[in-house]
Amino acid sequence: MESALIGILFAALGIGVGTAIGYYFRDNKSKAHLDDASRKADEILREAEIKQSEGLARAKEKAIKILEEARLEERRAFEELQKQQTALVERESTFGERLNEIEKSKQEVEAAQKRLEEAHANAERLTGDIMVKLQEVAALSKEKALERLIATVEDEHKENILGRMRKLDDMGADEIDMKAKTIMATAIQRQASSHVVETTVTHVQLPSEEMKGRIIGREGRNIKALELLTGCELIIDDTPGAVTVSGFSPIRRQVAKRALEKLIADGRIHPGRIEEFVDEAKHDLALDIRKAGEDALFELGLPTATLDPKLVQILGRLKFRTSYGQNALLHSMEVAKLSAMLAEELKADVYVCKLGGLLHDIGKAVDHDMQGSHPEIGYQIMQKYGFPEAIAYQSIGHHEDKPKTLEAIIVKAADAISGARPGARKDSLEFYVKRLQDLENVAMSFEGVEKVYAIQAGREIRVFVNPKQVDDYAATKLARNIANKIESELKFPGEVRVTLIRETRVVEHAK
């Protein structure tokens, strides 16, 4: 037990001695490390002080250098400013001198202007005095003297004035005529139309001469029934194999023709069958009329919904209407196409021109059944169906001398082209002769005209004047007056050329 306690004491003693020795060595080692760190810190501080002193020296040198450069720059700027101030002083001095000169010139100009105004006033006063004295001496007023002077100058230079007027007229007319011909030729070349083939009466071919007696019937009852139901007159003459249907209305003529053809094909001709076939002909014709109107809209690229179905029916009636032998529906379609082409060239409203051209003669479809001229009837029809004024006006505008709108002028021109082209229409002999007589009578109504000849189917008149009554200057005015009177009083397709001829013959005899 004691030995164990002694061992424990020695062990504790050893631990304490070891701990003391460990603290001793640790303390010494820590002091050694602390000394090393202190030495290194001193070295770093010394190096930093050395670098700091070197950096301060360099910074001081740079600052001194920048300061010297700034002083040099300041000196140069000061010198430049002094030069500018010197130049400005010199310029102000020069400007002052120039201003004085301008002021002096202004005073001189004002003085000269004042003297000029005084001289002008004196001249006007002297002119007035001279004019008064001249009027007293000549016994003429200023206005009369001016008229006499103008008349004298006009007489002396009449030939020059006339030549100048002709030259200006020719230049303007040639330029306008060239542009118009180009536009018209382009439209006409793009439009190909058929020639007239229809007449004002309708013929029905018969299979034999015996059929004429059957059409007439016993005591003429068949022909009377047919004429009563159709409103047309049947002409049965010596023409072999044909019966002529004559009537004021083309629709009625068509009904009579179709009914007669059905009766001839059926062979049973009596009043009962006549009434039945007349009703069938009216029904078939109504279908054909509507189809003709729809086909016309389709060919022109206009939707069928553009027009009311009743108006389409009225349009189709034009298929059986002629004007001087020209089919009215084909003429309206032709006018619509030409109007659209001209509108494209002239930047006008193509739709208004096309639809207005198609409907411009719509009044002709019903003018046999209504009172009034076809332009007025057509205008009323288009207003009734709600067309805008621009389109409805085409019915009236194409018959006015000076249409109000560009589109109406285009439709009027297209109507003239369609009606005046070769093969479009044909005139009766009486109408043709009357037109020539009217042209000659209009030209003969002017003073100084000796003879007038209408040539080229009435498209040109040649006027011979008395050279003693009409000089060259008056001849130009006379030709223009004749053309204006023809435009205002006569109606004609196309244009009429007025050629005025003034011939002077001098005859002497040598004895």
**Order of helical and strand elements:** HHHEHHEEHHHEEHHHHHHHEEHE
Helix content range: 55-70%
Radius of gyration: 57 Å
**CATH architectural name of the domain at 202-420:** Orthogonal Bundle
Distance between the termini: 208 Å
Q: Mean pLDDT across all residues, rounded?
A: 79
Strand content: 5-15%
CATH fold call of the domain at 202-420:
Hypothetical protein af1432
The count of β-strands is 8
Look at the structure and give the CATH class of the domain at 202-420: Mainly Alpha
Shape: flat
- Unreliably modeled segments: 194-198
Short description:
By secondary structure, the protein is mainly alpha-helical. Helices cover 69% and strands 7% of the residues. Among the domains are: 202-420, Hypothetical protein af1432 (Orthogonal Bundle); 429-502, GMP Synthetase, Chain A, domain 3 (2-Layer Sandwich).
